[in-house]
Amino acid sequence: MALKIVKGSIDRMFDKNLQDLVRGIRNHKEDEAKYISTCIDEIKQELKQDNIAVKANAVCKLTYLQMLGYDVSWAAFNIVEVMSSSKFTYKRIGYLAASQCFHENTDVIMLTTNQIRKDLSSPNQYDTGVALTGLSCFVTPDLARDLANDIMTLMSHTKPYIRKKAVLIMYKVFLKYPESLRPAFPRLKEKLEDPDPGVQSAAVNVICELARRNPKNYLSLAPLFFKLMTSSTNNWVLIKIIKLFGALTPLEPRLGKKLIEPLTNLIHSTSAMSLLYECVNTVIAVLISLSSGMPNHSASIQLCVQKLRILIEDSDQNLKYLGLLAMSKILKTHPKSVQSHKDLILQCLDDKDESIRLRALDLLYGMVSKKNLMEIVKKLMIHVDKAEGTTYRDELLTKIIDICSQSNYQYITNFEWYISILVELTRLEGTRHGHLIASQMLDVAIRVKAIRVFAVAQMATLLDNAHLLTGNMQRNGICEVLYAAAWICGEFSEHLENPVQTLEAMLRPKVATLPGHIQAVYVQNAAKLFATILKNQEGNTDSTAAQETSQMMIDRLPLFVQSANLEVQERASCILQLVKYIQKLQQKDVEVAEEVSALFAGELNPVAPKAQKKVPVPEGLDLDAWINEPPSESESEDEQPKAIFTKEEPKHSRPRHTEVDEKELARRREARKQEQANNPFYIKASPSSQKVYQEAPGVEHIPVVQIDLSVPLKVPGLPMSDQYVKLEEERRQKERAEKKKKEKKKRKEKRSGRGKKHDSGPESEEDITPAHVVDIVTEEMPENALPSDDDDKDPNDPHKALDIDLDNLLETTARRPLADSEKLPVRSHRAAGAPKSPAEDGEAENATPQEPKKKSSKEKRDKKKDKERDRKRSKEEKKKKKHKREEKEEDLLGGQAEEAAVQSEETKEVEAQPSSTSAEVSDLDFWLSNAPVPSNTQEAATVAAAEADPAPEAPAGTAADSEPEEPKDTETEESKSSKHKKKKQKKEKEEKEKKKKKKHHHHHHHSDGGGEESVQNGTVEEEEPLPPMSNYCLLAENSYIKMVCDIQGNLQDGSQVVVSVIFENKSDSFLKSMEFNVLDSLNSKLQRPEGSGPHDGLTVPFQLPPGVSNEARFVFTVQSIVMPQKLKGTLTFIVKNEDSSTHEKLDFKLHFTCTSYLITTPCYSDAFAKLLESGDLKSSSVRLEGVNMPFHHLLARICFHHHFSVVERINSCASMYSRSIQGHHVCLLVKTSAQTVSIDAKCDEPTLLGNVLDEIKQTFSQC
Amino acid sequence: MIKAILIFNNHGKPRLSKFYEHYNEDTEQQIIRETFHLVSKRDENVCNFLEGGMLIGGSDYKLIYRHYATLYFVFCVDSSESELGILDLIQVFVETLDKCFENVCELDLIFHVDKVHNILAEMVMGGMVLETNMNEIITQVDAQNKMEKSEVIL
Question: How close, in Å, is residue A101 to chain B by CA atoms?
Answer without folding.
Answer: 8
